[in-house]
Amino acid sequence: MSQIPAVLITGASTGIGATYAERFARRGHDLVLVARDVARMDALASRLRQEAGVMVDILAADLTQAADLAKVEARLREDARIGILVNNAGTAIGGSFVDQSVEDITKLVTLNATALLRLSRAIAPRLAEAGEGAIVNIGSVVGVAPEFGMTVYGASKAFVQFLSQGLAQELGPKGVYVQAVLPATTRTEIWAHVGADVDTMSNVMEVGDLVDAALVGFDRRELVTIPPLQDAEQWEAFDGARKAMIGNIVNALPAARYRKPA
Ligand SMILES: NC(=O)C1=CN([C@@H]2O[C@H](COP(=O)(O)OP(=O)(O)OC[C@H]3O[C@@H](n4cnc5c(N)ncnc54)[C@H](OP(=O)(O)O)[C@@H]3O)[C@@H](O)[C@H]2O)C=CC1
Ligand SMILES: N[C@@H](C=O)C(=O)O
Predict the structure, then answer these.
(1) Ligand 2 — pocket residues by CB below 6 A?
(2) Is the pLDDT of residue 2 over 70?
(3) At 161, phi and psi to the nearest 5?
């Protein structure tokens, strides 16, 4: 791996992914941009080559399509210059569970969870072998808040969070850093895709602020980075309660409350 590793970013044509591309380019990283909209990636790539003097490759791929996903997996397996994967591509759908189509929820899970899993799996053995590198997975605060009412989207993001935490356990000791980033409402086009006008919403974070904060967490090697959460102790208490339960969660006997009265 080169001293400054190349970064492969999915969903790099706009929004959070394009902003990651800009920030990593400014840090001197060569890039591989992955998304469907080649014209947008071309424009971004030309600008970043000119402004930051880095090399930028474009890999056009619809990550819900098997052949395209396989192409990106192969690149991650074979291109030893790539030392950082930013699994950012994601989508959301509006409506309630019973109104969402089976096709739409399947596609959402394929992109938000399966593609992210497969790309992590493609790069992880090479990074573990090298003893360095990073995987950044973009989750969402919706993944810890079923109350927000975006059930399938939130479930896919809970998967991202769990996977990231599990991979951090497995790959951390091998020298590979895994970060889960949990944004809340951020000003990007994703909201238009679910039929919402982000300009009418409150507490909207600007995308540059979100990515800059996520990169502070990255530089600190934080495992879970939640840029909008003002009080870090709340996450620590939440995670601490989970860890405290682990010692009590495996038992041969059912708890007394589940036993029939004699
Ligand atoms: N904005 C927000 O409020 C929040 C966003 N997030 C998460 O952040 C991530 C980025 O979202 P955001 O920037 O807001 O969204 P955008 O809709 O602005 O960008 C999504 C990116 O993903 C790409 N993409 C979408 N579908 C596919 C596909 N099938 N194959 C390949 N690429 C695809 C799009 O490119 P193209 O169309 O060219 O393929 C685009 O580059 C997502 O995972 C999202 O869930 C999390 C919490 C809050
Ligand atoms: N991307 C948002 C939902 O559409 C979110 O995660 O808040």
Answers:
(1) 92, 140, 142, 184-185, 190, 194
(2) no
(3) -65, -45
- The total number of structural domains in the chain stands at 1
Helix then strand then coil, % of the chain, to nearest 5: 55, 15, 35
Range of the domain at 20: 6-231
Q: How confident is the model at residue 213 (pLDDT cuts 50, 70, 90)?
A: very high
Q: How far apart are CA 58 and CA 75, in angstroms?
A: 11
pLDDT value of position 1: 59
Reported as a pLDDT band with limits 50, 70 and 90, residue 261 is confident
Residue 255 lies in a domain: no
Give the mutation target among 190, 194, 201 for probing the ligand 2 site: most ligand atoms within 8 A of CB. Answer: 190
- Residue 81 pLDDT greater than 80, yes or no: yes
Nearest alpha carbon, ligand 1 atom 15? 190
**Quick check: is 241 in a domain?**
no
Give the domain CATH number at 121. Answer: 3.40.50.720
Report d(CA 66, CA 138) in Å as an integer: 21
> Mean pLDDT over all residues of the chain?
97
Name the pTM for this structure. 0.98
Report if residue 68 sits inside a domain.
yes
Cα-to-centroid distance, 17 and ligand 1 (Å): 7
In a domain, 237, yes or no: no
pLDDT band at residue 164, thresholds of 50, 70 and 90? Answer: very high
Q: Could you give the angle at the alpha carbon of 225 between the alpha carbons of 142 and 152, nearest 5°?
A: 20
Task: Count Cα atoms within 13 angstroms, Cβ side, for 239.
Answer: 12
Of 10, 13, 41, the one to substitute when testing ligand 1's pocket (max ligand atoms within 8 A of C-beta) is 13
Q: Please tell me the distance between residue 86's alpha carbon and the centre of ligand 1 in angstroms.
A: 12
State yes or no: is 153 an active-site residue: yes
